[in-house]
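Methods — Computational structure assignment.
A single polypeptide chain was analysed. Its primary sequence is given first, followed by the predicted tertiary structure written as structure tokens.
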Amino acid sequence: MLREVLSATGWLERTRDFGRALRVTSRTPGGLLLVGTPGGDPWHLAAHLDDESRLGDAPGLAPTLVRWSPPPDAPPHLSIGLSRLEEARRGETLFVVAEDEAPVPLLERVDDARRVGATILALDGGDRELEGLAHEALTVPAEEALLSFDGAQHLVSAAAGEEPARGARGLRSRLARLLEAVTGPTVD
């Protein structure tokens, strides 16, 4: 029912495009850095992306959750602080999830990561500065009646986990044509 309601709004296409960009840019295990704002770590999205990574055999989608203030007794996967953003490099993806305006310290780190070659993706509530730094951005305005910010996160994670379409130019198709050229056509 949700798909039917959203189908006429363009949200399914926008989240699918953004999810595809996330999947394409996040190929290196551990190279997807997921960060929120001081008021909200995107742990729920991290869990969904981790599931999509495991179920879709896409190790690059398993995120590294970067937290503003990890407690000193946090388990290793929940103890990664903002200093990790300073280590961002080419080939990594920094995915910023900010329903509210991103604070200046985060914007500075995002800008630094972009300068060293990291790909920047943003899911935001209308932050023009963050969107200006992002290579790809998906904005969910607060006044959006049909899709909540949390709902958009669910759609993005599901879309990121979708297997890329394999058309006539897919690997299997090309391999089949190559084998037929080498061995000759199959005889029934």
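Note: Residues 166-175 have pLDDT under 50 and may be disordered.
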